[in-house]
Amino acid sequence: MKKLVLTTVSAAALMIGAPALAQQTSDIDQIGADNSATVDQTGGNEGVSDIDQDGDDNVAEVTQSENPNAGSPTFSVPANKATIDQDGDNSRARVTQNSTNPGGQSNVATITQSSSYDPSNSGTDSTVPSGFANNARVIQDGEDNQSTISQTDGNPGGLTGAAAYNSQEGSGHRSTIIQNQLGSGAEFDPDSRVDVFQSGTDNTSDVLQRRQANGLIIDQSGSGNSSDAEQQKQSNTGSVTQSGVGNVSTFFQNQDSNGTVMQSGDNNNSDLSQSNNSVAFVDQIGNNGTSVVNQGGSENNADVTQTAGSTFANSDIQQTGTNGDATVTQGGDSNHSDIIQSGNAQTASLIQFGFNNDSLITQEDGVGSGGNTASVEQSGDNNMSDVFQSGTGNTADVTQASNLNVSDVSQTGSGNTATVNQ
Which pTM does this prediction carry? Predict the structure, then answer.
C-alpha cells in the first residue's frame, strides 16, 4: 500500500525567521508514495510556485531567482512563476528561472505531466526506469520568457517514456511542448524526446509529439524566429535550427522519416512535410527565401540549398511516388523552381544562379532501368525551362548560361534522351 503524504507550504511558513523581502509564495500538495518537492525561491521579489503531485515516484524541483532588492518590486506579476502538476507513474520535473531587473512580466513556466499503466500487465504499472519515463525540464534566463510543457495520455494504456527539455536564455521567448499519445493503447515506448533551446530574443516554438521513438531538436539562437513542429507517429528524427532573424519553419513528420531545416539567413520560410520513410534537408542561408517540400509518398529524398547572398529564392518539391530524389541549389536573385515527382525511382537536379530564372520539372510514371532523370542548370538571367517526362528510362539535360532563353522538353515514350545547351 502506498503511503500518504500531504504537505502544504504557505508563504508565512516559508518566511518565518527570514528578513522581510518582497512577495514569495509556495504551495505544495503531495498525495501518494515516494513524492518529493523542493522549492528554493532565491533572492526576493515576486516568486510564486505551485506544485501538485498525486502518485508514484514523482519528483519536482523549482528554483527561482530575482534581484534580491528589499521593498516593492518595480515590475508586475508574474516575475518568475512556476506551476508543476504531476499525476502518476515515474514523472519528474525541474524548473529553473532567473530574471534580473525585467522590464515587465518575466519567466513563466508551466509543466503538466500525466501518465498511465499498461493494461496488459496486471501486476504492476508501466513505469520505466528513471530518465526514460515522463521527464520535463525548463531553464529560463532573461526577461519575459514563457514555457509550457504538457505530457499526458488521452486513453488507457498510453503515455510512458516521454521526455521534454526546454532551455531559454535571452528575452521574449515563447515555447510550448505537448507530448500526447495518439490512439488507444499506444505508448511512448521506446521513449520519445524533445529538446528546445532558445538563446536569442523573441523566438517562438510549438512542438506536438504523438507517439514513440521520436526525436526532435529545436535550436533558436537568432531573433524573431518561429517554429511549429509535429511528429505524428513513430520513429521520426527532426532538427530545426534558426540562427537568423524573422525566419518561419513549419515541420511535419508522420513516421520513419528524417528531416533537417537550417535557417541562418533572414526572413526565410520553410514548409516541410514527410509522410513515410523519407529524408529531407533544407538549408536557407540567403534572405527572403521560400522552400516547400512535400513528401507524400515513401522512401523519397529531397535536398534544398538556398545559398549565401541569394534573395527571394523559391523552391517547391512535391514527391508523391516512391524512391524519388530531388536536389535544388539556388543562388542569385528571384529564382523559382518546381519539381513534381509522382512516379517511382525518379531523379531531378536543379541549379539556379543569376536573376529571375524559372524552372519546372514534372516526372510521371518512371520506373525504367534507372527511372526518369532530369538535370537543369540556369546561370543567366530571365531564363525559362520546362521538362516533362512520362514513360520509362527518359533523360533530359538542360543548360541555360545566357539570358532570355526558353526551353521546353517533353518526353512521353521510353528510352529517350534530350540535351539542350543555350
Answer: 0.80
